[in-house]
Amino acid sequence: MSTSQDGKVTLYDLPTKKPEYGCWSPNVWKTRMVLNYKKIPYTTTFITHDEISPTLSALGIPANPPKPAGAPGPPVSPYTVPAIQLPDGTAVMDSAAIVVKLEELYPEPGLRLENNLHNEINKVLGQLMMPIMAVCYPLIQRNMLVPETVPGWTVKKEAGFGMSIEELERTKGGETAWSAAKPGFESLNRFLEEHKEDEGPFVCGSRVSYVDFVVASMAESFKRIDVGLYERFCENAPGLRVVHEACAEWLNEDT
Question: Which InterPro entries is this protein grouped with (predicted)?
Answer without folding.
Answer: Glutathione-S-Trfase_C_sf, Glutathione_S-Trfase_N, GST_UstS-like_C, Thioredoxin-like_sf
